[in-house]
Amino acid sequence: MARTRPPYPPEFRRQMIELVRAGRSPEELGREFEATGQSIRNWVAQEDRDEGRRSDGLTSIEREEFNRLRREIRQLKLEREILSKAAAWFARETDVIPPKGSSS
Question: Would the pLDDT of 96 be above 70?
């Protein structure tokens, strides 16, 4: 299983992005500051998307909205399942439909 670490603070990310834009390589910064070069490249790319320099993915705001909508959909599906089961239970209790397992 891969090791996970807490996310880097936003200020640290901003500093890394500034250093890359000043001409330092992500790999060099990674060795010096213990972040991976790929992580630093990802931060730079995301910052470019947020600032409109790239259009090959979602901006941070769009990504947050997308994740919020996914959570909302998951919650709505759960609620729909619960309501469906409750409706079936109430229908059986009021003899609107035959009980489970009956042959009639």
Answer: no
Sign of the torsion formed by the C-alpha atoms of 95, 96, 102 and 104: positive
Q: Give the number of other CB atoms < 10 A from CB of residue 17.
A: 19
Answer yes or no: pTM beyond 0.85.
Answer: no
Contact indicator for 67, 53 with CB cutoff of 8 Å:
no
Residue with tokens 């959570």: 71
Measured distance CA(69)–CA(50) in Å, rounded:
20
Domain ranges of the chain: 10-57
* Dist CA 38 CA 7 (whole Å): 14
From residue 61, how far is each of 37, 69, 88 by CA, in Å? 24, 12, 41
